[in-house]
Amino acid sequence: MNIHAVRAELIETVDGLSDTEINQRAVEGVWTIGQVLEHLYLTEIAVAHHAKKALSNEEVQIEPKPISLILDRSKRVQAPAPCEPTTEPKHVQDLLLKLESARTSLLAVYEGAESSQLAKKGFTHPAFGLLDINQWIEFVGFHEQRHLEQIKEIKAHLSV
After folding, report:
1. For 44-105, what is the HEC assignment?
2. Are 80 and 125 in contact (CB under 8 A)?
3. Is the confidence at residue 1, as pLDDT, over 70?
4. What is the C-alpha separation between 149 and 98, in angstroms, rounded?
């Protein structure tokens, strides 16, 4: 999963949307585009924080998990409380800056670390269990792809 390509597509998909459009609810009980973007930012910040902490953990053997299953949008997943978006109105530019900042924080964890070292350190995902740090960065890409599809659906409902 190329997290940079997914992010580029995400930015392209929301490019030109107004604050009004990203705060408009397409379907009752479904997040707005702004809430999806906030969720992505909150998730990525949390992953970066936990990955940085995990670097000081003992090395362990971690089996790869089928994280691509996150792309199956027929299965709804409840976001952990710290990654739940608020109901406050959002501003497109603020969210894009937060997403950029979160990505910088995430990539900083990987700078200077060996992939083999990252494969032996990890932390727990609520659905998949213990993931190594390499799989976490892959997860961020799959997770963003999942929500990119959600944003496209919301846009279609809003006719923007």
Report:
1. HHHHHHHHHHHCCCCCCCCCCCCHHHHHCCCCCCCCCHHHCCCCCCCCHHHHHHHHHHHHHH
2. no
3. no
4. 20
CA distance 160 to 154: 9
131-154 confidence digits (pLDDT tens)? 999 999 999 999 999 999 999 999
User: pTM of the prediction?
Assistant: 0.93
The model's pLDDT over 16-59, given as tens digits with 9 standing for 90+, comes to 999 999 999 988 888 999 999 999 999 999 999 999 999 888 88
Q: What's the rounded Cα separation, in Å, for the pair 112 and 31? A: 37
Task: Find out whether 103 and 44 touch, Cβ atoms under 8 Å.
Answer: yes
Q: Whole-angstrom Cα distance, residue 113 to residue 54? A: 12
Residue 160's pLDDT is 64
